[in-house]
Amino acid sequence: MQQANTMVDVLEHCRVSPSLDLSVTKFLPLTFFDMFWLNWPSLSRVYFYEISCSKTEFTQTIVPHLKKSLALTLKYYYPFCGNLLIPTTLSNNTTPALRYLEGDSVSLVIAEFSGIASEGFKNLSGNDARDVEELFALVPELPRGSIDMAGDETVKVSPVLSLQVTLFPDHGFSIGIRNSHVAADGKTMYNFIRTWTSISAKQLTGEDEFKNLDSLPFYDRSVIKDPKGIGLIFLRVYLRMAEEYSKDFDQAGDKKEMVQATLLINRAQIHKLKNLVSPQLPHVSTFVVVCAYVLWTCMAKARTALGQEMNVEEEVAEHFVFAMDARARLDPPVPLNYLGNAVLPCWSSLKTIELVAEEGFGMTVKKIRSAIDEKINNDLTTIVLILGGANPKSTKLFQRNLLAGSRDSEGDLELGFCFSKDEMDAFTTIFAEGLLN
Fold it and tell me: Keywords on this record (predicted)?
């Protein structure tokens, strides 16, 4: 079989169930942290592994090993095999939840890159700009779900995870992941990958004991308190605005004519940015200064350079939205291996004229740190009540960007961006020039 995108040939489409099937039905109710993301699109990521292997070795050795280790991982992450159950009306008494049924499984696609493997692997795993559509060829689809009729109850049933392993003959393979944000935030998905990697490595050495892995999930939803009924507020918003939000995100997620690139910022450059604001803010974090420089100041300047903000003198506001992990902020704190969502959106606003001014970087640092301090110091319930009724209208391109630790050097950062070609050219020029000055 060959996908509509001719970059890959599908060798196999299978399903993987947890090893030692639980043989029971399990429900994991959604918390308000989960229901906040009901209107958001699924998340995608691709991991690349460089290894010289033939197609025969890949299909006969690597794939069976990956399937076996995945089945063992899903034994612990069994909700990822199940479905989201979301009522379609408030009159339905169904509790929004993740449901696992006996026999549930995860979709796994095994594919082969159909072009020149050396060029394809180098291009897609590298840092230079490449068409987003090319990367999406390495990520499986996540079905939108269906309407399940059970008596008088109408419930939307949606898968939460799908996987794709793609071979680049004699050069390596990739693992593409698509998951529902409602089921898991970035920390949970990171723990899932860590667990799969650890189990796979232990298998190669003959180990079969995995219960002591620190990345195994914590399921107790009672640690998330909701005395004000915030989850119901988010569910009402979802049911009222689902169609409108879907249209907005379809447009925002249009991957045609978009390119993705990875930029690097090293420890010395980060230290230099901190020094620029140290007289006023002596203890500013790496996250704050990098976000201020890269995810706000450079973007505002790039849009201005392209004429997207025709008159910076106008009262035009830029909104920067980012997520803060609340696990350590709850009382009592939630374990780091908690499965689900435990992130809060933070945001700040500045006028375009302030962002592109000479002192714009310092002002941006103060704004972002103030937003974080506000979340830390305020009562969590109050914050969530505000979120239910006052989300920012415009987040621009920020939902398409990623900040992560470098694979090659401790203390350096890799910054992933997704823009149009013109925006990427302008942004990367401003990014590089700013670090040199």
Answer: Acyltransferase, Transferase
The pair phi, psi for residue 369, each rounded to 5°, is -65, -35
State residue 338 phi and psi, 5-degree precision: -60, 130
Instruction: Tell me the whole-structure pTM to 2 decimals.
Output: 0.85
pLDDT mean across residues, the chain: 83
Place of tokens 């609340």: 326
Tell me the C-alpha distance between 32 and 50, whole Å.
40
pLDDT band per the 50, 70, 90 thresholds, residue 387: very low
Q: Is the pLDDT of residue 234 over 80?
A: yes
CA distance 369 to 384: 19
Give me the mean pLDDT over the 242-259 stretch: 56
- In 3D space, the residue among 400, 432, 344 whose CA is nearest the CA of residue 33 turns out to be 344
Which amino acid, 140? P
Written as one letter, the residue type at 64 is P
Cβ atoms within 10 Å, residue 90: 11
What does the buried/exposed string (b/e) look like for 328-340 if buried means 16 or more CB atoms within 10 Å of the residue's CB?
eeeeeebeebbbb
In Å, how far are 128, 302, 426, 434 from 305, measured between CA atoms? 22, 5, 7, 14
pLDDT tens per residue, range 421-430: 998 999 999 9
DSSP string, 206-266: T----TT-TTS-B--GGGS--TT-HHHHHHHHHHHHHHHHHHHHHHHT--TTEEEEEEEE-
Q: What is the mean pLDDT of residues 351-375?
A: 81
Structure tokens at 105: 């499984």
Burial of 169 (0-12, 13-18, 19+ CB in 10 A): buried
Flag whether pLDDT at 390 surpasses 50: no
* Paired tokens of 265: 């910022």
Q: Give yes or no for a contact between 105 and 48, defined as CB atoms under 8 angstroms apart.
A: no
Q: Please name the amino acid found at residue 422.
A: D
For residue range 189-206, list pLDDT tens digits in order: 999 999 999 999 999 888
Instruction: Answer whether 82's CB lies under 8 Å from 160's CB.
Output: yes
